[in-house]
Write a structure and sequence with these properties.
Blueprint lengths: L4 E8 L4 H8 L4 H8 L4 H22 L8 E3 L5 E3 L9 E7 L2 E7 L3 E7 L6 H8 L2 H8 L3 H22 L24 E4 L5 E7 L5 E8 L4 E4 L1
Length: 227
């Protein structure tokens, strides 16, 4: 893949028993132990499918067996390649909600977030935690019919940026003013700089009805491709 490309993959985590068994076989002992701790089979299956599909996806880019992949995790939980693939120059991120998952793969730091619009959320409580004053005032001015879509569009942007920056996010999400269409470029992306001066950009990506998704990556010169 080219340096300016970000590949975005979508997946359904509800798979057949045979497919789930094949994906489980690619997991490490630690991942299998984590899966076993899920109380409900549905949640256990989604974890196995989500992690197994990630392994299969990355194995294609790296041309190695899915089971051979190893991961490290940052202080904020961001996964990165470890072991012999640590210096492969491949970055990735994933998000899941219900039985849907979103994966991003790039040659630069990247973050992705996915949310179901029917998720029961206390908009006011979450918005006060993640929104700037300007964003919160704008959300309050919306009609009940419009607030859900606008809220989740904003929330997914914030989470995608946080996941892209990872351990480097020094300030809270309520300091990132990135949810106004009038601040966006023609393709919908909004740019920002972190505490180190690194530039990032984020945009919402088209999703199926009932879902909101966002993608963030280092720089502003990247283009995303649905894979």
């Amino acid at each position: 893949m080219a340096d300016d490309e970000v590949h975005l993959w979508r997946a359904n985590l509800t798979v057949s028993e045979a497919r789930l068994a094949a994906l489980a076989a690619t997991l490490t002992e630690d991942e299998q132990a984590r899966a076993a701790r899920f109380r409900f089979p549905e949640h256990r299956g989604r974890f196995i499918a989500g992690r197994g599909l990630l392994r299969e996806l990355l194995s294609v880019y790296l041309n190695i067996p899915a089971a051979a992949l190893r991961f490290d995790f940052g202080l904020r939980g961001k996964p990165t390649l470890a072991g012999e693939q640590r210096d492969a120059g491949l970055h990735f991120n994933l998000s899941h909600s219900g039985d849907q998952a979103l994966y991003a793969v790039a040659r630069r730091e990247v973050g992705v977030d996915l949310e179901a619009l029917d998720r029961q959320v206390d908009y006011a409580a979450v918005a006060k935690r993640i929104c700037t004053r300007r964003e919160w005032v704008a959300l309050q001015a919306l009609s009940p019919k419009d607030i859900s879509e606008a809220f989740f569009a904003c929330w997914t942007r914030k989470e995608a940026v946080a996941k892209a920056i990872g351990d480097g996010l020094a300030s809270g999400l309520d300091t990132l003013d990135i949810c106004f269409p009038e601040d966006a470029a023609p393709d919908g992306r909004v740019s920002l700089c972190d505490a180190t001066g690194q530039e990032w950009s984020v945009l919402n990506v088209p999703m199926a009805s009932g879902w909101a998704g966002a993608l963030a990556a280092a720089g502003t010169d990247w283009r995303w491709t649905p894979a």
